[in-house]
Amino acid sequence: MVLRLGSVAPNFKAITTKGEIDFHQYIEGSWAILFSHPADFTPVCTTELGEVARRANDFAERNVKVIGLSANELKDHENWVKDIDEVNNVHVDFPIIADADRKVSALYDMLDYQDITNVDTKGIPFTVRSVFIIDTKKVIRLIITYPASTGRNFDEVIRVIDSLQLGDKHRITTPANWRKGDDVIVHPGVTNQEAAELFPGFRTVKPYLRFAPSPF
């Protein structure tokens, strides 16, 4: 299966630090972020999971459920969470999938076949740092893959969620480096007459580029 933007996120059942879950049931009615990690007890992953826990309120405000994944056993996850909490002064309250057999990793094409050092003792590839943003219809709206050596920017993940949710609610797109509260772009499919009603005070830079105040 090739996953692209617009694909329905594949369902799966898995053991996690919060018990067994059915993924579609877990995210029902919410947006979701599924993000993978190369391995437990690794430095970059420890900072990433701590950051996600620290920003729990940011995700809750946006109706986003988060779920992590690492290619280790459940017992390792449970011990690792203690380190994450201690190092980052947080409480990890979201599930982390125990994917030692790489079933979910393979389903979502999260395995690293380029970096030959990114393997376990049996030579099986670990996961890379994949991010999937999934909407309330269980449709994949964003896919980002980072190398194992580079931690993710969760400011960017939240920025994209804001952009997607705003675009779903209003007929807009967002420009480069846009942040919540900045001016937005009137969708090309909106006529000037419609724009005058929807976005009073919109301004035209080019016929195809029209800015309007943020509807937030």
From TrEMBL:
One GO BP: cell redox homeostasis
Keyword annotations of the record: Antioxidant, Oxidoreductase, Peroxidase, Redox-active center
GO MF annotations, alphabetized: peroxiredoxin activity
InterPro entries found in the cross-reference section: AhpC/TSA, Peroxiredoxin_AhpC-typ, Peroxiredoxin_C, PRX_1cys, Thioredoxin-like_sf, Thioredoxin_domain
Active site: C45 (cysteine sulfenic acid (-soh) intermediate)
Membrane spanning residue stretches: none
Gene Ontology CC, one term: cytosol
Family matches, as PROSITE patterns: THIOREDOXIN_2
Boundaries of every Thioredoxin domain copy: 3-166
Family as reported in the entry's similarity comment: Belongs to the peroxiredoxin family. Prx6 subfamily.
Function (record text): Thiol-specific peroxidase that catalyzes the reduction of hydrogen peroxide and organic hydroperoxides to water and alcohols, respectively.
Record's protein name: 2845_t:CDS:1
Organism: Paraglomus occultum
